[in-house]
Amino acid sequence: MTTWAALFERGAAFDVDTAAVRETLAAHRDAGDDTDEERDGGGTDE
Amino acid sequence: MAARMSDVDPGAVAADADVLAADLFVDGAAREALDVVRAHSWVTLVASDPLLDDAEAVVADLGDQAVAADWRAKLEREATVVTHPAGDQPALAAAQAADAAHVLSYDEQLRSARTGMQLKERVDVSVKSPDAFARLFDPERLYPTVVGGDYPGPDCDPRD
Fold first, then answer.
1. pTM value?
2. Interatomic CA distance for residues B112 and A30, integer angstroms
3. Which CATH number is B105's domain given?
4. How far apart are CA B27 and CA B22, in angstroms?
5. Residues within 8 A of A (CB atoms), B 97-126 only
6. Which residues of chain B have pLDDT under 50?
7. Is residue B6 part of a domain?
8. Residue B81 carries which DSSP code?
9. Less Cβ around it within 10 Å: N or C end of chain B?
């Protein structure tokens, strides 16, 4: 099993900051919410 | 489900997906907070499949699939993975399912006083930013309650 030290070294190589993490999660969850609404029949058309 | 206010575990912590992913990428507050968890065998990180799914998606998007898969395998091995109803906010639901006292999140809405009041009606959980958790979580003070006896200091290598 890999160590946290090794994982952190790999993670650092992507040069990601906390703001990018937060924005990406928000976009991911928004996309999930839209998918749930469409599946439930509550589309987003206005 | 009825709220269970009396058996909350002060040594159990759920971290939202933003904190989990930031821990991997950034040498900052999220890592400092989760280092406290990793450094103590009696402090438990709780997670769920929906929570890990969210975090893995972020890691794969900002990093790559290989590091996301290895990271998830490591977390699944070290965290206590619980189940909860689909559709609930994953970190809160994982904390509730595990009776965890702490949720770590960068989400200001989740940490707002109003949300806190609503949460108190359902579960006795404190939602904190990672830097606040790192500042306020006191293993030495909690040890006698959670484990018993005198605090021996950290007993795990948080980089292992």
1. 0.89
2. 20
3. 3.40.50
4. 8
5. 106-107
6. 1-5
7. no
8. E
9. N
Count up the domains in chain B and report the number.
1
**Interface touch B54/A25, C-beta < 8 Å:** yes
> What distance in Å separates the CA atoms of residue B86 and residue B106, rounded to the nearest whole number?
22
Q: Which residue of A has its CA nearest to B108?
A: A22
Distance from CA of B7 to the nearest CA of A (A): 31
User: How far, in Å, CA of B93 to CA of B101, rounded?
Assistant: 12
> Quick check: B133 contacting A, CB < 8 Å?
no
- In whole angstroms, give the CA distance from residue B108 to residue B124: 19
pLDDT of the residue at B1: 42
- Tell me whether residue B12 is in a domain: no
The Cα B20–Cα B26 span in angstroms is 10
pLDDT-derived band at A22 (thresholds 50, 70, 90) equals very high
Query: In angstroms, rounded to a whole number, what is the distance separating the alpha carbons of residues B102 and B115?
Result: 14
Residues 138-157 of B with CB under 8 A from A: none
Q: Domain of B28? A: 23-138
**Structure tokens belonging to residue B68:** 């996301």
**3-state class (DSSP) for residue B148:** coil
Count other Cβ atoms within 10 Å, centred on residue B35: 16
